[in-house]
Amino acid sequence: MTNHWVDMINADVVMIMGGNPAEDHPIAMNWLTRTKERGAYIVHVDPRFNRTSSVADVFAKLRSGTDIAFVGGMIKYAIDNNRIQQEYVREYTNASWIVGDGYGFADGLFAGFDPAKKSYDRARWAFALDGQGQPRRDPTLKHPRSVFQLLKAHFSRYDVDTVCRITGTPKEAYLRVCDLYTSTYAPDRAGTWLYAMGTAQHSHGTQNVRSYAILQLLLGNIGVAGGGVNAMRGESNVQGSTDQGLNNDILPGYLKTPVEADTDLATYLKRVTPVTANAQSVNWLQNMPKYVVSLLKAWWGEHARADNDFAFSYLPRQGQGFQGEGYAFLALTHAMLAGDVKGLFCVGQNPAVGGANARLIRAGLDKLDWMVVVDLFEHETAGFWKRPDVDPTKIPTEVFVLPATSAVEKEGSIVNSGRWAQWRYRAVKPIAACRPDLEIIDGLAKAMKRAYEKDGVFPEPIRHLAWDYGHAADPHKVARELNGRYLADVAQPDGTRVAPGTQVAGFAQLRDDGSTMSGNWIYCGGYTEEGNLAARRDATDAPNGIGLYPKWAWVWPMNRRILYNRASVNRKGEPFNPRKWVIRWNAEKKAWEGDVPDGAMPPGAMNPFIMLASGVGQLYAPEMVDGPFPEHYEPVESPVRNPLSKTQSSPCAQVWQSTEFDKYGTAEVFPIVATTYRVSEHWQTGAMSRNMPWLAGLVPSAFVEIGTALAAREGIKSGDRVIVSSARGSIEVYALVTERFQPFFVDGRLIDEIGLPWHWGYAGIVSGDIANDLTASVGDPNTQIPETKVFLCNLRKKTPA
What is the distance between the alpha carbons of residues 643 and 163, in angstroms, rounded to a whole number? Predict the structure, then answer.
């Protein structure tokens, strides 16, 4: 999130798209309820009328996979009706920048597309530069190749009728959404945009989010109270786990993973450290060398020295990946099936149920030599070898199940959707032989170090690992390491000196000479000499009274509650909205007031988006692998032809076709759109909730939700057993017939959509068929996240035996 949950009370309009917080984030929904009580409007856009829809002021249905068309029309509406915050757009975005002659767009494709490689030559999308190497600008925004004019031209095709023809949204509802939400362009109003997996799990999921960001920038809704683009995380610590670099392509703090071409530290730093010729850009990430070296010192201590590149050679390098397709989830599961992966650690995951194309995943587990599962219960992944219809004697995989502890049985911090690091204490002791994750990983690391002292290929990274969290691993020691400390006597700018062992006060103090260490630079400032700031529980608000609560827990970075908050003020430091100011410049004190500012320099020429090399918001983003602007494409499986162009689906999408499990359906055989969702009574794959009798009893059976019109045509009523099939196979579930799914009138014909909760499997107190047996191995080209939120299917009532 750019903002945080409490800040939702400052919004005048709340847009929820691709999420259902009333059921999936019920406690956080409290802040949206308060927002509405204060007079705000809630807008909900979703394929299904659900409990969030029931409390919304405006509900608009859309066909799954058509977010960009919907938001693209809103962008056109804002531009056509001059509902953009002119000063904000001119000063704080790249709207005025001139794009070079290489850029072009025609029939769904941007310039530079190579159909053989399914990729673009992104150099074609570069900006036009002046003699000093800076992008040329036109402050009037009238130049035909300015970003603003190209943006206007790109979305000119997204008129209301075309959008509704694609999305199936009723025109009256769509116009109401456009009018209400774009009203937040006024400086004294704000709109916040909330999304979740309904946005992300698509073959163009990253561009879905991009479309939200473009609209929010045009409206001036980034950096302000009650604004932002805010991801609703599906687990209490998903944000924290991502911060720690659990994705395959990042290190802790979102540092980039080395690649094979990074032969030494200098080469790597040259590649990953952004450079800009723009004198108005702070370009904060020019400090990348300080964060990288401090991380290497945290990991390898005295063995990370200047004369050995601070042990940079110990880091693994990314190559082309599994079968040349990278290292993300879909590539990993296909590599397992191919026998290229011999062992798997599965910690807090249940991919046999939760992963796309789940039958493929379970077949891949059959090919492993060994697997270690760390979880609370023996779920479907742990017990894949004894699933229905398989012979365990023919599966060679050796499975080790390590019983873990629940959240209330261990101490440590979690980081919520709003980046708040909150310390939690152990409530009860673990049962039986269950151990906290930290203790399990600590034991594994110590055992590996002992083993590698005797033997091993390339043993130095393990032998030299700086691993000392106590005889019984102490979460406070881990948190202190993440924050970082001085390793030498270091002079400060004011002439004072800091002794070795002193906790670093913030990431501005990190150095690239080996005199500091930090396990995660964005967590600097969270566990200082003042103590564990994540444990604070002071509910006193800041003087501006907008719900910052600066002494409640701690927020990365540097306890900044609203990111890019310098965009909430003009070049003089005056708030665009004095009534709900986030920061403001006190000329008498020569200091900022309010939230921790995104850069302490005085107001003036410096641009507010300090983490971007450009310093400005990216209406045009040539870094994206599938286009500098979002473009509507149909999902890989779709019942209609793309009305906007001859390019049917994302030309860069990762579409796997290498195995017997990688099959794709057509509308002639599978005419119904399907999506997946969650219910409040169950949690994710059900590994926890289906093992709790009081939860299992509330919703004991897998079901498919079917609209009344489709059910009537198929002769189905609630409680019937039905077969739902896709090109990947079929499942048998109960029917739940409701009014919540209504047909979509799309491109001149009716399209039906159904919904499948994905909480069931063959383990636990209650069981049911697996919804993800029907989903496909399709990935977003930027992130490779699977397209599990839309696929084609058919259904029929089960015939009695």
Answer: 10
Which residue(s) pair with 109 in the sheet?
Answer: 106
The DSSP output letter for 402 is E
* Tens digit of each residue's pLDDT (9 = 90 or more) over 360-374: 999 999 999 999 999
Q: What is the pLDDT of residue 565?
A: 98
Which of 714, 726, 728 lies closest to 799 in space, CA to CA?
714
Q: Which of 240, 234, 239, 197 is nearest to 28 (CA)?
A: 234
Q: What angle do CA 170, 172, 177 make, to 5 degrees?
A: 95
**What does DSSP assign to residue 135?**
B
Give the distance from CA 542 to its chain's centroid.
29
The per-residue pLDDT for range 102-140, each reduced to its tens digit, is 999 999 999 999 999 999 999 999 999 999 889 999 999
Q: What is the pLDDT of residue 140?
A: 97
Structure tokens at 305: 């020295």
Q: Give the span between the Cα atoms of 178 and 68, in whole angstroms.
A: 14
Instruction: Report angle CA 13, 15, 21 to the nearest 5 degrees.
Output: 120
Give the C-alpha separation, 763 to 768, whole Å. 9
pLDDT at 234: 83
Residue 667 and residue 792 in contact, taking contact as beta carbons nearer than 8 Å: yes
The secondary element (H helix, E strand) that includes residue 67 is helix 67-80
Predicted confidence (pLDDT) per residue in 192-210, tens digit: 999 999 999 999 999 999 9
Give the tokens for residue 523: 């967590």
- Residue reference for tokens 């083993």: 451
Separation of alpha carbons 131 and 152, rounded Å: 28
Residue 430 DSSP one-character state: P
> Helix, strand, coil shares of the chain as percentages rounded to 5?
30, 20, 50
β-pair type (398-403, 370-375): parallel
Return the structure tokens found at 741.
């799914």
Furthest C-alpha separation in the chain: 87
How are strands ordered across the β-sheet holding 191-195?
58-61, 41-46, 13-17, 191-195, 229-231
Q: Give, in order, the Cα–Cα distances in Å from 513 to each of 142, 484, 611.
A: 48, 14, 23
Report yes or no: 547 and 9 within 8 Å, Cβ to Cβ.
Answer: yes
Which residues in the chain show pLDDT less than 70? none
In contact, 707 and 48? CB cutoff 8 Å:
no
DSSP per-residue string spanning 81-115: TT-S-HHHHHHHBGGGBBBPTT--EETTEETTEET
Coil, helix or strand for 268?
helix
User: In the prediction, which pLDDT does 208 show?
Assistant: 98
pLDDT on residue 594: 97
Q: What does the radius of gyration of the chain's CA atoms come to, in whole angstroms?
A: 26
Listed in sequence order, the DSSP H helices in 220-328 are 238-243, 265-272, 288-300
- The span from the CA of 551 to the CA of 536, in Å, is 6
Phi first, then psi: give them for residue 424, nearest 5 degrees.
-125, 145
Quickly list H helices, 387-436.
none
> Please, are residues 13 and 183 in contact by the beta-carbon 8 Å criterion?
yes
Please tell me the predicted confidence (pLDDT) of residue 62: 97
Q: What is the spatial distance between Cα 362 and Cα 375, in angstroms, rounded to a whole number?
A: 18
Say what the pLDDT of residue 323 is.
Answer: 87
> CB under 8 Å, gap of 24 or more: what pairs does 99-103 form?
99/125, 99/126, 99/127, 99/128, 99/145, 99/146, 99/147, 99/150, 99/620, 100/125, 100/126, 100/127, 100/128, 100/129, 100/145, 101/128, 101/145, 102/126, 103/145, 103/150, 103/628
Residue of 628, 670, 671 lying closest to 652 (CA atoms): 628
Query: Quick check: helix, strand or coil at residue 781?
Result: coil
Paired tokens of 603? 């107001």
